Amino acid sequence: MTRHFLNTQDWTRAELDAVLAQAARFKRSPAGDALKGKSIALVFFNPSLRTRTSFELGAFQLGGHAVVLQPGKDAWPIEFDLGTVMDGEAEEHIAEVARVLGRYVDMIGVRAFPKFVDWSLDRQDRVLQGFARHSPVPVINMETITHPCQELAHVMALQERFGTTDPGSSPGQALRGKKYVLTWTYHPKALNTAVANSALTIATRMGLDVTLLCPTPEYVLDERYMDWAAKNAAESGGTLQVSHDIDSAYSGADIVYAKSWGALPYFGNWEAEKPIRDRFRHFIVDEAKMAKTNDGVFSHCLPLRRNVKATDAVMDSPNCIAIDEAENRLHVQKAVMAALCAPELGAGG
Amino acid sequence: MTRHFLNTQDWTRAELDAVLAQAARFKRSPAGDALKGKSIALVFFNPSLRTRTSFELGAFQLGGHAVVLQPGKDAWPIEFDLGTVMDGEAEEHIAEVARVLGRYVDMIGVRAFPKFVDWSLDRQDRVLQGFARHSPVPVINMETITHPCQELAHVMALQERFGTTDPGSSPGQALRGKKYVLTWTYHPKALNTAVANSALTIATRMGLDVTLLCPTPEYVLDERYMDWAAKNAAESGGTLQVSHDIDSAYSGADIVYAKSWGALPYFGNWEAEKPIRDRFRHFIVDEAKMAKTNDGVFSHCLPLRRNVKATDAVMDSPNCIAIDEAENRLHVQKAVMAALCAPELGAGG
Amino acid sequence: MTRHFLNTQDWTRAELDAVLAQAARFKRSPAGDALKGKSIALVFFNPSLRTRTSFELGAFQLGGHAVVLQPGKDAWPIEFDLGTVMDGEAEEHIAEVARVLGRYVDMIGVRAFPKFVDWSLDRQDRVLQGFARHSPVPVINMETITHPCQELAHVMALQERFGTTDPGSSPGQALRGKKYVLTWTYHPKALNTAVANSALTIATRMGLDVTLLCPTPEYVLDERYMDWAAKNAAESGGTLQVSHDIDSAYSGADIVYAKSWGALPYFGNWEAEKPIRDRFRHFIVDEAKMAKTNDGVFSHCLPLRRNVKATDAVMDSPNCIAIDEAENRLHVQKAVMAALCAPELGAGG
Fold first, then answer.
1. Do C132 and C178 lie in a common domain?
2. Residue C15: what are its φ and ψ, rounded to 5°?
3. In which band, very low, low, confident or very high, does the pLDDT at C166 lie, cut at 50, 70 and 90?
4. Touching check for B238 and chain C: CB below 8 Å?
5. Three-class DSSP category at B117
6. Is residue B123 part of a domain?
7. Could you tell me where the DSSP H helices lie in chain C?
8. Residues in CB range of B5: below 8 A, 6 or more apart
9. Is C255 in contact with C208 (CB distance < 8 Å)?
10. Cα–Cα distance for residue pair C116/C262, rounded to 1 Å
11. What is the arithmetic mean of pLDDT over B123-143?
């Protein structure tokens, strides 16, 4: 069966550690030929700056080539359901798209955000799953309803700050027992829960003591990811709790990770959520809140609206590692591609 | 004079056979340096998935580089008529675009679908012809009112199924005398006749016994292509006939190639054609029709609307070679580029 | 401090001459490895044909790779002001965009035309300046309110026509004392003054006897560029004058460079300017005007509307060097990238 990178949860801890170790090697020494003559199709259903640039450059630096495709924009719109009579907008079916791309390229990256109308549909992640089902070559999640590449970049930045990425030691040890706060922040639009789902998943996987801070129980994440997190914490020796109290959540935190997302009970009904969300603008990450932490580091996946999600002072502080995290996207994605395409490097399953 | 690849009809049979033989070699051994340091501009006036990906990767695999341009989208709109006062939308003239690109790149690929308003204009193929007239470097047709790259990929897939692509033998022999049905199918929109024109052209060229199956005489193709086909059949020892009878057309067929297109007498007047077209939804390629064939293979150029043009069962059958044909786009286009740019490979005129 | 290429005016004459000499070497011998493993982000806020193609190919020919980004189209819209509460359209801040890109790539090219609403804002060039302020890697102006890459390509084409680009001699000598006319031409829309600002800047820098020909004093350029030009002429031994008289301006000219632009006093109020502009359609460059010159060469930066800015006869004349100038974009930009990224080549500061 074809090996994909759809979620970190599908990979063992040892496999993830090997990818992180390879990423650290790529950071020290960017050039290589692990992908010499190989190629990846980057299929974007949504905009991208970091993902696009880092995947494209990552392929180049390893001797490969990335083809950027934007279905419905410069390529044809695609049908994902099986058995349908395709008399609507879609001009072709994922069965053909994935199989044809799989004849051309060695890997397929997919970015497909939720449609934000019906969470019960969006949570099926059918674009990504459609590619994974039909593609004969490895598929990489470039952000759908989770964002596993961001998870790895995030963990790598934390390991750099708190410990070692030396392959000889156990980087996981460096993070164990640290207090990690994933805080919801305000944003004028209801956003994807992908990075929040992912942060919760990977932080619990790494044995951190995780607090999910959000305004009300309505902002708790989908049970699939809450379940993953609980299971991960149990296995890794970490903890997981939900809090709606800003002061106690920030108190003594070693790591503050911020993200805005829409409340699932109002999914697709955002006008009803808006007045609720608007009451919680004070969830912004500012200096006063960061002062309650244990000289904590701050990060965010970017893009970030300054002075809405976090203040200029927080973003420009030496404790902000968001730029390091963004840089690490390049290194971890090279390691993921190498693991899928050139497993002899020792970075993958 | 600069050698272009605008239509297979402009190339001798020996040249086409050499390109197909080179394509077979590239399929066995994809990497090379025939285009080392060389480049191609891919000028898309319309969307693309396969063409874009296969040309871009083909250039990469041979050491070259493709630049993708979309005039009117991320480049400037272009004027194609000579002698006009350019006070409309177009910001520059093909005379400059083609000559400037020709200073930068070694080849120019052009995709320019008909505008679907006036066939007497569209049949002049003026975007492609404008590039060919003004460009100092070879121009490749990436689908305008014909689709010669698709023709080669199609023939290559047929040769793989029915015979040999061994350069020592005559691949054309393998197809001679086979019954080939080009069938019109329903589609909710009136589509380009390019692939139909091309299928008719190349099938007759290869000595097949060709039946053009379409609902009514109004769906017969433009006389230019009907004339090419008649001439080709006469020269190659094949045959050409038009049929409106599904049963007799499918009966004993070795090859069924499907395509939808708009009826030329209603060109630009599609509302009038729509009720006519809607009466022929039963032209869909299904298992019952395929059962009448001589265990025939099925293909289509893609994109294809499942259960509109062909049923899931036909598409997912082992007799469907559409994915092979799509893959072959990569190989034949590499061979065309090499023939135009590195003729010492022996693949071109 | 990071070295950028924002304007030729920031570089010494010796540095510009070195870049031009390197460009001439690249024209004779295009392949190289000055950018081996290196990369450039090409950030386009506006369309492009030549700039995009020539930068992308230039990077490729020197062993590097260009990533093309279009913020607000396939990337996120960007905020450029400091200290703002980002609750509008922009999803991220230039501080993050520039710093993150600077972690991925070795150079950043920026195209950002004026917004054409308020010249007092546009003349701050804040997109380019924002990148330059925040980027840790060199930033290259790909046309904002000036177009320095075009300047170098223009001068290179003039040196090729009038003298020598041999690095042993002084190419500037070849142009000194030639009569250079920068003529405004009609265009149905009010256009950017960037190329006009740039032509004035570089022509005076090179010691030419420069006449700015425009319909009325309202079409004189911004004082920043008029001041640069006056200072340059004083230093280089050239001259600068403004003329509204077509006959005397063309009389004896060695070089005619055409460009259309909007009159600054009507900036953003184009409906008021339109009837004025419409009275000057006769500024078109035609054979009668060129006959008054000293067998002068003609050029334009392209795109050009034929028979609006210049007639077919002028464009197709052997004295037209616009295609050479466009080709030179490739060579000079390679030299600029090499100067910024591989200064050991000797082409830059």
1. no
2. -65, -45
3. low
4. no
5. coil
6. yes
7. 13-28, 50-61, 94-104, 119-122, 126-134, 148-162, 171-175, 194-205, 223-236, 246-250, 270-278, 287-291, 312-315, 322-341
8. B11, B138, B139, B140, B141, B148, B149, B336, B339, B340
9. yes
10. 9
11. 97
What mean pLDDT is predicted for residues C137-146?
98
Per the structure, the complete domain to which residue C289 belongs is given by 149-326
Instruction: Flag the least confident range among A43-47, A200-204, C140-144.
Output: A43-47
Helices (H), chain A: 13-28, 50-61, 94-104, 119-122, 126-134, 148-162, 171-175, 194-205, 223-236, 246-250, 270-278, 287-291, 312-315, 322-341
- The CATH code of the domain that includes B207 is 3.40.50.1370
Cross-chain Cβ contact B47/A84 below 8 Å: no
What are the chain C neighbours of A322 within 8 Å (beta carbons)? Answer: 96
Query: Does residue A276 sit in the same domain as residue A161?
Result: yes
CA C131-B104-B74 angle, to 5 degrees, is: 50
CA distance A61 to A41: 16
Q: Are strands A107-111 and A139-141 parallel, antiparallel or unpaired?
A: parallel
pLDDT tens per residue across span A106-132: 999 999 999 999 999 999 999 999 999
- Check whether C187 is labelled as a binding-site residue: no
Interface mutation target, options C69, C84, C91, C101, chain A, most CBs of A under 10 Å: C91
Q: Residue by residue, what is the 3-state secondary structure of A105-162?
A: CCEEEEECCCCCCCHHHHCCCHHHHHHHHHCCCCEEECCCCCCHHHHHHHHHHHHHHH
* C193-232: pLDDT as tens digits: 999 999 999 999 999 999 999 999 999 999 999 999 999 9
Instruction: Decide if C327 and B103 are in contact by the 8 Å CB cutoff.
Output: yes
**Residue B170 pLDDT class (50, 70, 90 cuts):** low
Q: How confident is the model over A226-246, as a mean pLDDT?
A: 97
Please check whether residues B170 and B276 belong to one and the same domain. Answer: yes
For the segment C37-49, the average pLDDT, to the nearest whole number, is 92
Does residue A202 carry a pLDDT above 60?
yes
In the prediction, which pLDDT does C153 show?
Answer: 98
Residues C178 and C306 occupy one common structural domain: yes
Contact: B100, C57; criterion CB under 8 Å? no
d(CA A199, CA A304): 16
Measure the CA–CA gap between C347 and C154, rounded to whole angstroms: 18
C76 and C212 housed in the same domain: no
Is A54 domain-assigned? yes
Distances (CA, A) of B263 to A272, B267, B309: 50, 6, 16
**Same domain assignment for residues A53 and A202:** no
Closest-CA residue in chain B for C65? B65
For position A48, what pLDDT does the model report?
A: 84
B149 belongs to an annotated ligand binding site: yes
Kindly state the tokens that stand for B132: 């060919």
Packing angle between helix B126-134 and helix B94-104, nearest 10 degrees?
Answer: 50
Q: Please give the pLDDT value at position B349.
A: 38
Provide ipTM, 2 decimals: 0.94
Question: Which residues sit opposite C297 in a β-bridge?
Answer: C255
Strands C92-93 vs B65-69: parallel, antiparallel or unpaired: unpaired
Assigned domain for B246 exists: yes
The total domain count for chain B is 2
Residues C171 and C300 in one domain: yes
Taking the alpha carbons at both ends of chain B, their separation in whole angstroms is 12
Residue in C86, C99, C101 closest to A305 by CB: C86
Q: What are phi and psi of C259, to 5 degrees?
A: -165, 145
Q: The pTM is what?
A: 0.95
| C-alpha neighbours within 13 Å on the C-beta side of residue A268 | 10
Interface contact C108, partner A, CB < 8 A: no
Q: Are residues B316 and B179 part of one domain?
A: yes
Shortest Cα distance, chain C CAs vs residue A227, angstroms: 31
Q: Alpha carbon of B241 to those of B108, B174, B218, B298, C43: distances in Å?
A: 36, 21, 15, 19, 55
Residue B291 token pair: 């059962």
Question: Annotation-wise, does C126 bind a ligand?
Answer: no
Indicate whether A45 belongs to any domain: yes
Are the CB atoms for A8 and A148 separated by under 8 Å?
yes
